[in-house]
């Protein structure tokens, strides 16, 4: 019993001392799960260059990032889309670009789909691959969950309403989309181009479809010719000052291009 | 005629018995098989990535490289907070339910019903509750403390139910005997009832630990996503389950380390199981046999 008492006492001591302890300067970022891994890496490098500063990154989705930045829960929100009209009171800063492409299973003989065909598939008007030049087989529509910015960009581009989409699978994060399509030869989904390129290059059985005749590649997102791309944004409530400004300037600088590329996104042109 | 009938009956009974045995064996094999398959899958994909440095290093490049040292520490801290909060509360409630009030009384039924409802609540609801209550309202922020306390809320119902069943299984003669010997209620509890229920209490603890270690949804919004080595309980710290989820669902090329981390999670659970079981045996022996 004595040992257990000691353990409890030491944990309590740790808790009490920890309540009085705080880092010199702390930045809290919350939001897009797409940006979160990149933000963690940006934060680590920033911490190394600025001793005494801590950058805490929390995930949860773009909508959360926007609302946390507005409520003050986060110093900086992360949103993997442009701000909407009703969010224009906030300030946004693009740190990288990302393309969104339609993916199919590698064994699917369909080589391209017109915009109208994609719309018809997602609204349930076309339910068999035979109707778009493929083999006989049911189409499994993979859609993103509500609140995900990929979904908003996709529906915006194809002028769809999410309530019109007839999906068989609803997913959250990017990798989940890739895994769902890789595991189902009849599936169609849409994901971040950078990661899809990386995965198909590493043997995952998926392929990216061109859009309006432009191949879905990181290169075409970089040169701006690919039609469906999105900015990865940091969002603040006020004009950034002090540490927040310093961090945002750092994330938009040339020195972090390698970190952006390591997460399969497209760095800003410099 | 009679003889052959009897022989036929015996044959059928023999067949029935053997079919039954076969079925039971198959069922048991399937359960063991599912576990072995899972473990084998994890071993095949994860074992080659295991090394001492994987266990102690910090994650790099969003977890694709580096190790999970800071994440193991965060996980154990979250678990400790959760158990330190849940076990005393849970044990006290279970004792109240079994020893002090009748299960059919209005208050007893109210507690029982609340526990049943709580046990069925999806973990994401606990996560959102923990975020609103611990992180925002109590001002604990994204921290190991918030995450641990949220897990404690989640593990409580299952812990109380199992502990209650264990205490009820102690025969009433023991209580009567203790009273006849002039033991106070507290002494009877401490020296007889709780040690006698030790195996069930251990099971309750293990179920709680299991639920806590496996939890992802309740932790993303409470203990958070930060993968730095925590320096206090007020720091945000990423749990193993959150790390595995992020690596497999959000980080391209993170699968290998996700497998290795999952393997570590299973090994940790097995170690905790072993420790808890040996502790309960010791408790049982020391209290009942020598006291």
Describe the structure.
The complex is a heterodimer of chains A (270) and B (291). Chain A is α/β, with parallel strands linked by helices. Chain A has 2 domains: 133 residues, Periplasmic binding protein-like II (D-Maltodextrin-Binding Protein, domain 2), CATH 3.40.190; 124 residues, D-Maltodextrin-Binding Protein, domain 2 (3-Layer(aba) Sandwich), CATH 3.40.190. In chain A, 37% of the residues lie in helices and 22% in strands. Chain A contains 10 helices and 10 strands. In chain A, strands 1, 2, 3, 4, 5, 6, 7, 8, 9 and 10 form a 10-stranded mixed sheet that branches. Chain A is elongated and about 65 Å long. With 291 residues, chain B is mainly α. Chain B has a single domain, classed as MetI-like fold, CATH 1.10.3720.10. In chain B, 77% of the residues lie in helices and 1% in strands. Chain B has 12 helices and 2 strands, in the order ααββαααααααααα. Chain B has a two-stranded antiparallel sheet. In chain B, helix 3 crosses helix 9 and helix 8 packs across helix 12. The longest helix of chain B has 45 residues. The mean pLDDT of chain B is 89. Chains A and B meet through helix 1, helix 2, strand 2, helix 6 and helix 7 of A and helix 3 and helix 11 of B.
Top keywords for this entry?
heterodimer, A: 270 residues, alpha/beta, D-Maltodextrin-Binding Protein, domain 2, 10-stranded mixed sheet, 10 helices, 10 strands, 37% helix, 22% strand, elongated, B: 291 residues, mainly alpha, MetI-like fold, 77% helix
